[in-house]
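As described in the Methods, two query proteins were run sequentially through the folding procedure within a single session, without resetting any intermediate state between them. The first query and its resulting structure tokens are shown here.
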Amino acid sequence: MGCLDAIFTKSYSVNKSLFYIELIFYFCSSEWNPREPDQLIDLIERWVPYLPEWIIDNILDQLIYPILHREVDQWNPLTDSIPIHSWLHPWLPLMKDRLEPLYQPIRTKLAQALQNWQPSDSSAKAVLLPWQKVFKQGTWDAFMNKYIVPKLVSIMQQFVIDPRQQILGRKKILIDIFFLFI
């Protein structure tokens, strides 16, 4: 391959990469709803084999991450009808550890939402369980010990053990919540 061929190939590759970045930028800024990630993830995954790694890294770091960060900041676990894991977890295979800085604000918001939570409300299990394998084990355990275990201890202290008039409602709550620790 001659010098001109190499220049042409490099120029073509750069132009293709710039075109792709512009396409993704346009899509993100005009049409994409971060709470519906599948279409954009599919687009990026289709192009991964054809683009240099630095282009994909740039798109994920400079374009996608800030949008997801902004969306996490706006998310309210008490009022949002779309669970955060449904639109953030699909990014895990592409974003990997890039999402780690978002987990602390998520835990903070979950902790605030759990302040008035009662163990008889099973919604906490549905909200927390998807995060069990995403948060690091030590972080998960600390979160559970701080925000869930004290409420479970409180309900256990209210148990009356009487085989003649056993009420199993509270025990069922404990069994349901127990699965968050497995």
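Immediately afterward, the second query was submitted; its sequence and tokens are:
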Amino acid sequence: MGLLHRVSRRGALAGLVAAGLALVLAPATSTSADIRPAPAQAAGRPPLAGKVVGIDPGHNGLNYTSPAFLNRKVWNGREWEGCDTTGTRTAGGYTEARFNWNVAVYLRADLIRMGARVVMTRTANHGLGPCVDTRSRILNRAHANVSIDIHADYGPVSGRGFTVLEPVADGPNNKVIGSSRRFGRDVHAMMLRDTAFRVSNYYGRDGYISRNDLAGLNLTMMPKVLIETGNMRNAADAALLVSPKVQRAVAAALAAAIARFLAGH
């Protein structure tokens, strides 16, 4: 998501596409307490049958081309913020928007195989937006059972690791704070189990942080967290983030987290 986006919202902000855009398709150390076993499924029934899962791949591939869209102000539940941002990139030029999209596509396929109906907040990586408030509306209108916001970070060069961003009660999301935190624990545990990423050594505490200034967390009315998967500014993390194999592993970890969370309801 980028250091400027996390701290002061400086820099380019991203564009708006038609409201309601969606693609609906029919996908530290962990302890035993972190990982809840899923109940046995009925024979022949996919584990996520009847569930709706939202995926929000942050940014978009052409956000950088339209400052007018980038600077449009939207209400995030507490204050006015920019429509979106361009996202960050590695030293080699690999963009966060591309990483987010690739992981989302792999995750969508995994969830579909598990029987879920999937809602995406954007349909490709060669467009603008949508704005962050529109993304929340897309997921709310789909009545998603759970949603995940996929990002990578721009931190200090020496910083490594992932952080799970959790919501703070802000009105629309008041009823899902506890369930979002439970989902965040599943995401945290599965990232440690199934990927090469460890918890962040520079952002949050033990791989978690609460945020009250993000429309994607403030305005959604289902359990949702945002994952900053790794630090694109760090050479070691960047080498992982650009790898298709690692992107698939991240997607598989998120799918496992979603399945474990939904199995508990």
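The chain has one domain: 3-263. We note this only descriptively and draw no conclusion about the first query from it.
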